[in-house]
Amino acid sequence: MVETINFIVKDKSFEKFAMMMILGTTGDAMDVKMNFFFTFWGLFLLKKKFKPKVAGMPAPMKGMAAKMFLKKLKKFGIEDPWGMIKEAVDNRSMRLFPCQMTMDLMGIKREQLFDFVEDPVGAASFLEMSEGGRIVSL
After folding, report:
1. 117 or 1, greater pLDDT
2. CATH at residue 65
3. For 59, phi and psi rounded to 5 degrees?
4. 20 to 30 A Cα–Cα from 129, which one of 6, 50, 62, 95?
5. Taking a C-beta distance cutoff of 8 angstroms, is the pair 10, 138 a contact?
6. What is the pTM (predicted TM-score) of this model?
7. Domain total for the chain?
8. What is the pLDDT of residue 1?
């Protein structure tokens, strides 16, 4: 039986993005199903033009720190983090679910999100699909 792990992503920081990318693509390699539910500020990670910034740093440094970390990822062979995520999504090992209520509250439209993101679902739907798997909050 394939294990399922369900994550709730509630933060838009670069660190949360990196955790999601690493966990999701590792799950893809290990035949673990990974569902990610993006709510509140975490939903911004699914927006096409959003650039996550490193949290816990002075404002001018946040974007620069994210760029520096992306350079470090390249040294480890990760050229395109979103490309890796899309590949895991295409393999159906990783699924990205935006929260419908958060989208409505924040005025975010479906067309603003990456094309490979699942259709929005409510919290109740996500909890139902998570039944039998582990739930982790990022």
Report:
1. 117
2. 3.40.1260.10
3. -45, -50
4. 50
5. yes
6. 0.86
7. 1
8. 44
Q: Which residues contact 74 (CB under 8 A, 6 or more apart)?
A: none
Give me the phi and psi of 128, to 5 degrees please: -65, -45
Least confident of 28-37, 55-64, 80-89: 55-64
With 0-12 CB in 10 A as exposed, 13-18 as middle and 19+ as buried, what is 118? middle
Determine the structural domain holding residue 56 and report its residue range: 4-137
- What's the token pair of residue 33? 């199903």
* Token pair in block for residue 93: 């090992």
3-class state of residue 61 by DSSP: helix
Q: Where are the beta strands (DSSP E) in 26-115?
A: 33-38, 94-98
Q: Report which residue type is found at 63.
A: G
For residues 46-68, give the mean pLDDT.
Answer: 81
